Amino acid sequence: MVTKLDRLARSVPELVRIIQALERKGAGLRVLNLGMDTSTPTGKLMLTVLGGIAQFEREMMLERQREGVAKAKAAGKYKGRKPIADSIRQEVVRLAGERMTKTAIADQLNIGEATVYRILRSSA
Question: Are residues 68 and 91 in the same domain?
Fold first, then answer.
């Protein structure tokens, strides 16, 4: 059971894989905000059609986003992510060498945990 279809899958092939996995386990899918049930032929048809529309909408949104970024870059307004200072990079590597957890490093240096992973991956 899901509340909204767009929270379940990002593409029709992914949606079909999920539905097939559920069917192999003898389960169906209900989408609450649409009142849809995949245990019926009509529900399966509607799910596939709506999944296709959702994938189309997502692809259109990503295309508009890429166009907006390209336009901002051309106008000199898009600069991307601010680089992490070398001193912070060195501190991350040092603390990791002291066997401090990545979460603790992120908390101590007031940076995101993903940033810690990214720094350590690039320094390896």
Answer: no
Q: Over the stretch 67-107, which tens digit does the pLDDT of each residue have?
A: 999 999 999 888 877 888 999 999 999 999 999 999 999 99
For residue 92, the domain's CATH number is 1.10.10
User: Is 21 within a domain?
Assistant: yes
- Domain count for the chain, please give it: 2
- pTM (2 decimals)? 0.54
Per-residue pLDDT tens digits for 13-59: 888 888 889 889 988 888 888 888 888 888 888 888 888 888 898 89
Q: How far apart are the first and last CA of the chain?
A: 43
DSSP string, 41-91: HHHHHHHHHHHHHHHHHHHHHHHHHHHHHHHHHHTT----SPPPPHHHHHH
In terms of residue numbers, what domain contains 39? 5-74
